[in-house]
Design brief:
The structure is a homotetramer.
Chain A: E1 8-18, H1 26-39, E2 42-45, E3 49-54, H2 55-71, E4 76-86, H3 96-109
Antiparallel strand pairs in A: 1-3, 1-4, 2-3
Helix pairs in contact in A: 1-2
């Protein structure tokens, strides 16, 4: 779905299944990882899940996580997405999240 | 872009222009409202901006706000999106955000 | 708990009870409103709940909402807080959230 | 500031300096790390910064990051905080964030 005006997005999302009757969410997040693996996008699981790529693909991957988590039985899902774009520098695909952390580390190591 | 498996999304997003040299963001948010008006989706501005509709259209509208705010000169943008979907009840298009507030008010008025 | 270096905070939080066995959250959010009413802080319920005041008091009010929602039976809670501070202008207590919306409306009405 | 009813919080925050005239935020985030180091709390920098401990201490550490970033010249700051508490299990201090990731990895490795 990426098009010529599709901004490159560096994102992090935190998906919360609701109404599940159990406080644990690890099973749902694991299912999301299987979906993200299929998306071909670069991702990394932490408090939220880092994900980056063309905006439309990042959005579709998160949407498909919702579909998968609903299919696993969660009647409602609330997700928080932090998403950033920039036009001042070209981001080498797949390096946006790592580069952010590295720039901070470089400053602190001086 | 809405398709058969496109979940209905009730969202709220908070867009932050970065590197603009001025702390005020009202001009950028006003530009976003013009974009949202064109999207045809239901929206309402508060701390963030409520927005609801098919997931792909909601995502595209926010993406287009980024495009517009970059075009206004912001080199970088960070947006926080809260987005919810549910399969336990059918949401009448355009009523998702209002209905959430009303259910709380109904409980408090008892 | 407000002290001399306690920044004035304009916030919006979205509290999500987890593991409750029911997708509806209106009852929990209503309980939060009762807590906020007692806090004496300015608040307003929408997608999230606007809340403003000295940072420590805003934080304590949200913490006490967690305590109340746990007491109502939710074993786990995930909250997303957007919180802003600024030093470029003095915010008249209780007007921070409304003023943000008004500045956007003023621009659009021109 | 931790008291008997101070919930243990597992959090992740993303701090955004506004009105700085430069899109880069690495210098500000590095300053935050120095503040967090002094707080004595467990933290880890990624897209956002993981931080955990008693709610009041977590809140104060983020507040002090705002103070430090304002002192560095940012006139306005917008922060997104994801914060979770739970009463169904005891969290060993300092292990909340790591344990969340590990439970997902354990499921996927089966």
């Amino acid at each position: 779905m990426s098009t010529s005006d599709d901004l490159y997005a560096v994102a992090d999302f935190c998906l919360i299944p609701m109404g599940t009757g159990e406080p644990s969410v690890a099973g749902y997040i694991a299912e999301c990882q299987r979906i993200l693996e299929k998306s071909g996008l670069k991702y990394k699981v932490g408090y939220g899940t880092n994900l980056e790529g063309p905006w439309s693909e990042v959005s579709k991957a998160i949407h498909d996580c919702h579909l998968a988590v609903h299919a696993q039985g969660a009647p409602r899902i609330a997700t928080d997405i932090r998403i950033g774009t920039r036009t001042d520098r070209q981001i080498v695909p797949g390096t946006g999240n790592e580069a952010k952390v590295k720039r901070v580390e470089d400053i602190l190591s001086k």
